[in-house]
Structures are given as C-alpha cells and as structure tokens.
Write a structure and sequence with these properties.
single chain; alpha/beta; Glutamine Phosphoribosylpyrophosphate, subunit 1, domain 1; Rossmann fold; 18 helices; globular; binds 5-amino-5-deoxy-1-O-phosphono-D-mannitol
Length: 609
C-alpha cells in the first residue's frame, strides 16, 4: 500500500525524481513520507509526518546533491503515522524503504535487541535495516547481506535499499508486493508502480517473487535469493504520462468519472465483430472449454462488479455464477473442481485478498481468469488467462472508470460464452454488440448531469446518513453508490436490496434520512421499486430517484428529486446508473472539504490481507 521510488543517475536530478515520483504515488499511502540520498558516501535522511507537502517544506530548507536515493510514502500498518515511524529506516549507513508486512518481525526484533541493536520506531520494517547491518558487520557484501536478510524474513515485501558501504547501487527485493524497474540512459529507476517513473522511461521490468534487483547507473542484474541470475522480460508501456496527470480537472476522481466514455470504448474496441456478432479474447478458449460454472471474486468495488457480472452472465450465457468476497471465500469450503472457472476481478491486480483467493481456487483445480486494469500485475500473472480493462491509469482512490470497464468486460464475456456454447445466436450477438457500442455516447449524456448533481449535492451534503436502494441488476449499484459516498465524504451510507427494506432498514427512515433509489425503467423491477418509494414517503423520508424513460416526469411531486438518466439495454443499465452516484459522492465530498483523491485511512492498492 505504501509507495516506493528509487533513482540512480545524475546528481542534479535525484531529489526531483524522488519527489515527483512520490507525488504520483501518494494514492498508495499518504500518512508520512521520507527520502534518503547518498551524498559523498553518506546517507542523508529527511522524513515528515502527514502529506508529502510537509516533506517538501522541510526539503526547501535543505540541500541535497547525491546521484542516488530512495523515497517512500507510507500507509501505516505497524506503528502509528508519525515521523518516527516514517521510512526510510536506517541502521549503520543502510537505509530501507518497505511496502508490505513482515510476519516474523517480533522474533527477529527480539534477536536483534539481544545483540544490542536499538529500535527507533515501532515498525516491522526496521528489522530489515538492522539485519542488513548485522550481515555487513560480519564482512558480507551489500548484495550478500540483502540476500541473507531476506532469507530470514517471512511475509510480504517490496523494498528498496541503499548503503554507505557500496554507495553506487540500489538494491530492490520483492515478495508478494509489487516492484518494478524502469531503465534509462545512464540512469535507472525502481518503484512500486508505473506512474512514478513514467515521465522518464517506458522500458519496464516487473520483478517477480523472490527477485533481488541490483541497480547501478548504467547496468542492472536480477538474481534469486541464492544469487543465481534470473532473466526478466523488458516491457514497453504505452500509457500516456499526461493521462496520469489531472488534465485540468480539480481532482483525479472527477477526471476519471469523465473519462468513462473513452475507457468503455477502448475496452470494447478491437474485441468484437459487429457484423458476425462475435467477441474475441486472446487465449480464452482453453480456459472456458467445458466449464460448468463460474465463481467470481473481488473486493470493494470490484466485488460489486462481480455482483453485476452474475446477472449478466446468467442472463445472457446461462452459465451458473457463484460469488464471494475474495477475503471470505478461503474461510469456507467452496466447491471447486476442474469444471469451475474462477474469475478474479481487481483494478490494481495487486490486491492481496484477491490474489490469495485466486491461488487457493487454482490449487483446488479451478481454471483461472483475471479481469484487471494493470498490465503484468500480480493477479494477471498468476491467472491462466487475462482480460484487461483499458481504463488507463486510475489514480483516485475511489474506483470509477475501472468499475464501468469491468462491467463492460463482464458483458462482452457473457456474449463470448454464449456464442461459444451456442446459446447466443448470430442475430442476438449482433444486437448485443450494437447495444455495447451505444454506451460511450450514453455515458456522455449521463455525464451532462454533472451540474444538476452538483446542485443536488449542495442540497444534501449536510445529511449524516443515507440509504441506497436498488433491485435486480441495479442492486449492486445501490451498494456501489453507498460505498462511493462513504469512501470520499465519510458520510454513513448503506446500500440495500430494495425488497429487503421492509425487513429492517425501514425502521431508520424519517425526515433526516435521504433515500437514493436506483431504478432504471424496465418491466417488473421498476414497478416494485415504486412501492418502496411510497413506503418511504409515508414515513417522511426524502427520496432521490435515479430513473430513465419518458414517463419519469409523472413521478414529480411524489419525490424530492428526480434524476433522469438515458435509456439503454437493461443488462447495461448499471454502467449508466452508477454515473450520477459517482458524481453525487464526489460533489458531496467537495462541499464537505474532504480529501477526495486520497480519503483518510484508504489506499489505492491494498497489498495486505
Ligand atoms: O484493485 P482492486 O480492484 O482489487 O481493489 C479492490 C478494492 O480495494 C477497491 O475496489 C476499493 O473498494 C476502492 N477504493 C473502491 O472505490
């Protein structure tokens, strides 16, 4: 969850690369930050509690002139957010930044204390710097000391290390937490995520578990923990660095909400033939051949997309779908066999809960498919096949465009499965694909609600509780709307299946409880939801109705606010219905003055279980 960046190259560039890299990684963690730069063979360290700006203030009072350094932005696990617990942690002249959790740190700490090492923080990370120092003292080289240390460490880690003993190297090690190298001319980079280094290099190496990377200014090597060299492919990444910036929007979240028409189009394009009614996915045939059922898993917003995915797949391709939170499925005895296709959905592709659950299902015999947004991410590498969402980098912690692209992938996948099993005819295939191609334009129309939703948010931002209701395929959208509001505005919000309201939550309804009803027009579900509306009105609840269709205005007078979204094929309606809810959460957060892109306590990539 923390962000790591390291640079070795020219002295004039080091501070800038580290600071800019950390700025781009702040979404990974942001309760404290720090850098260590080797200057004339000495490690100079600067740390600060709170946001990166606090570190910058300190930096402006100091001068650094080293040609290599490492930086870190933290999301606390062990030890409160404070300067003392901020990384880098230093022992002797060795400085370490770390993302992950060291599971056996307490016993290592006890051993080190017995040897006389003094701990200056409450973190698990500090054992790393002391252990390396211990090896160095015994005469091992920097490389040997790092390898020796990580043979003793259990848990997850991505680390970058510099040492006064060999001040011309950065060493990186990874296990379970992401770490990449980026290669330049007479300079090299290490980082926990691509955006940190994108302005400087497109040549990226994704380190694998157990890799130790030794970076020098003009060369690099990768070994395993025993010192044997390993070869890793160099990938060329074509993400646009400008796309990683805010591009004129006040926040990444708003920018990413508005990028949804493009993101959805990019995810469809090149994968379908409208003429034949077919969908194409690389390497999928072997994975879906003979499957009897699907088990879909994810966390947070990605779990909500699995919920929608179930409706779409069962409806279009008639394959049974079961689902669970990735964090739960391992704690029961799921029935998994060779006839099971396990689908792991993850924007980042690095979520520890999802990765672990996927590996467990693989162990039990399932074939595995990842739906993810990040090329070569952990989950994509661990799966038998991958379908990428082409949303582009998502920086705001609240997931928006990744979600809608996941939904369109589920829709395309269901057509693919239906065609493969013969349950979807040519004609139906053509119609489904035509409907998909209408989505970018319909999303543009939905985004025109921006101003209207902004005004709505102004009216409602002082309420302290919200209830979100939906039914059928839009029940998950009620959950997603409530999650978005909670995440960015810190207002309590609950999402419920509308039919469940009378079984409990109705007790909460009074004039202080706005109820957001998500009900795009269809046959049966819409009418049933209207009864909920009357029940809420009878208890003086305030109703905001998100609906579609020409007749919507008939409801004026019966509700407090009506938000009319464009009509579309019902299976695709969640993609449109979620837009006003994303905007509503965004503007409420803006009015409340919260940190929209980096809400408190949250991180973009959750690499701890
Ligand atoms: O990267 P992932 O999709 O695996 O992340 C899963 C959740 O942590 C994520 O969706 C989280 O709920 C978001 N902050 C939602 O906005």
């Amino acid at each position: 969850m923390c962000g790591i960046v390291g640079y070795i190259g020219s002295a004039g560039k080091t501070v800038n690369v580290l600071v800019e890299g950390l700025r781009r990684l702040e979404y990974r963690g942001y309760d404290s930050s720090g850098i260590a730069i080797l200057e004339n063979g000495h490690a100079k360290v600067l740390k600060s509690e709170g946001k990166l700006d606090n570190l910058l203030k300190k930096l402006s009072l100091t001068s650094f002139n080293g040609s290599l350094g490492i930086g870190h932005t933290r999301w606390a696990t062990h030890g409160i957010a404070s300067e003392r617990n901020a990384h880098p942690h230093v022992s002797g002249g060795t400085a370490v930044v770390h993302n992950g959790i060291i599971e056996n740190y307490q016993e290592l700490k006890d051993e080190l204390k017995k040897k006389g090492y003094v701990f200056n923080s409450d973190t698990d990370t500090e054992v790393i710097s002391h252990l390396i120092e211990d090896f160095l003292k015994k005469g091992s080289s920097f490389e040997e000391s790092v390898r020796g240390t990580f043979k003793l460490i259990e848990g997850s880690y991505a680390v970058a290390i510099v040492s006064e003993r060999e001040p011309d190297k950065i060493i990186g090690v990874r296990r379970f937490s992401p770490l990449i190298l980026a290669l330049g001319e007479n300079e090299n980079f290490i980082a926990s995520d691509i955006p940190a280094v994108l302005p400087y290099s497109r040549k990226i190496i994704f380190l694998e578990d157990g890799d130790v990377a030794i970076l020098e200014r003009d060369r690099f090597r990768i070994t395993d923990l025993n010192g044997h060299e390993v070869k890793r492919e160099i990938f060329s990444i074509n993400w646009d660095p400008v796309a990683v910036e805010k591009g004129g929007y006040k926040h990444f979240m708003l920018k990413e909400i508005h990028e949804q028409p493009h993101a959805v189009l990019d995810t469809i394009r090149g994968r379908v033939s409208e003429e034949k009614g077919d969908v194409y996915f690389e390497d999928l045939e072997n994975v879906v051949n003979g499957i009897k059922r699907i088990v879909a898993i994810g966390c947070g917003t990605s779990y909500h997309s699995c919920l929608v995915g179930r409706y779409i797949i069962e409806n279009i391709s008639k394959v049974p779908v079961e689902l669970d939170f990735a964090s739960e499925i391992r704690y029961r005895e799921p029935i998994i066999d060779e006839g099971t296709l396990a689908i792991a959905v993850s924007q980042s592709g690095e979520t520890a809960d999802t990765s672990e659950a996927l590996l467990e299902m693989k162990k039990r015999g399932a074939r595995t498919l990842a739906i993810t947004n990040v090329p070569k991410s952990k989950i994509s590498r661990e799966s038998d096949a991958v379908i990428y969402t082409y949303a582009g980098p998502e920086i705001g912690v609240a997931s928006t465009k990744a979600f809608t692209t996941q939904l369109i992938v589920f829709y395309l996948l269901s057509i693919y499965l239906g065609r493969y099993t013969g349950r979807v005819s040519d004609q139906e295939g053509r119609r489904f694909i035509r409907d998909a191609f209408r989505m970018p334009q319909l999303l543009e129309m939905a985004l025109k609600l921006d101003q209207e939703i902004k005004e709505l948010a102004m009216e409602f931002y002082h309420y302290r509780n919200f209830l979100y209701l939906g039914r059928g395929i839009n029940y998950p959208i009620a959950l997603e709307g409530a999650l978005k509001l909670k995440e960015v505005s810190y207002i309590h919000a609950e999402g419920y299946a509308a039919g469940e309201m009378k079984h409990g939550p109705i007790a909460l309804v009074d004039e202080s409880m706005p109820v957001v009803i998500v009900a795009p027009r269809d046959g049966i579900v819409y009418k049933k939801i209207l009864s909920n509306l009357q029940e809420i009105r009878a208890r003086r609840g305030k109703v905001i109705l998100i609906t579609s269709g020409e007749e919507a205005h008939e409801l004026n007078g019966q509700i407090d606010r009506l938000i009319k979204i464009p009509d579309c094929a019902y299976m695709l309606s969640p993609i449109i219905a979620v837009v006003p809810l994303q905007l509503f959460a965004y503007y409420i957060a803006v009015y409340k003055g919260t940190d929209v892109d980096q809400p408190r306590n949250l991180a973009k990539v959750v690499t701890v279980e």
